[in-house]
Amino acid sequence: xxxxxDDVRQAEILRQxxxxxxxxxxxxxxxxxxxxxxRQAPPDLLILDVMMPGLDGLEVxxxxxxxxxxxxxxxxxxxxxxxxxxxxxHLGADDYVAKPYSPRELMARxxxxxxxxxxxxxxxxxxxxxxPLTVDPGRRRVECAGVPLECTPGEFAILATxxxxxxxxxxxxxxLAGTRGVDRHSTxxxxxxxxxxxxxxxxxxxxxxxxxxxxxxVGYKLTAGAQ
Length: 227
Description:
This protein is an alpha/beta fold and about 230 residues long. The protein has two domains: about 1-120, Response regulator (Rossmann fold); about 130-220, Winged helix-like DNA-binding domain superfamily/Winged helix DNA-binding domain (Arc Repressor Mutant, subunit A, Orthogonal Bundle). It is about 45% helix and about 20% strand. The strands form three sheets. Strands 2-1-3-4-5 form a five-stranded parallel beta sheet, with helices on both faces. It has a four-stranded antiparallel beta sheet with strand order 6-7-8-9, covered by helices on one side. The radius of gyration is 18 Å and the shape is elongated. It starts with a strand and ends in a 5-residue tail after the last strand. The model is unreliable at about 180-185 (pLDDT under 50).
């Protein structure tokens, strides 16, 4: 496991908690070193601070995602605006924790992400088609009207779940089970932000979604749209 955090004291606290949980941990304090380490020896999980000297965590995440789509990334951010969090998820972070945070909360997030990796279902051969969308779980590919789309792991998990049962309404908790999120308040917001990012990619007008539809008071469903 790799921790990239420029606050030396905070990094040491994380190291101690992770080691106490039985994880092998390496710690770096700047973005360029984090990028080098993660490329040379890809960790099971990268805990990545956004605000770091030299190269910030967003750029590190963007660069690593081009090389390794399977790397788990948990982002630490003092930026709590919706746009900042959306950007982190759009660049490929699997989850985020806003500062200040409880080390116990962070450890719960770590264990949940690792559990997701261990219990991930085997790839299926069936290609899922809903209206203009096709989702290929085996190849982890998404197309909309024949145009390939880039999706983060979290976005893909949500889209594959919805495409597997078209027109069925999924609650946020059910979608959370597919992405293996924790912490009710934050993770439900994470689902909402993944949905916002997906709408920007698949909808003609994201403000008036026709495919990925909100069912108010319940959750979301995927439909074929106007025929």
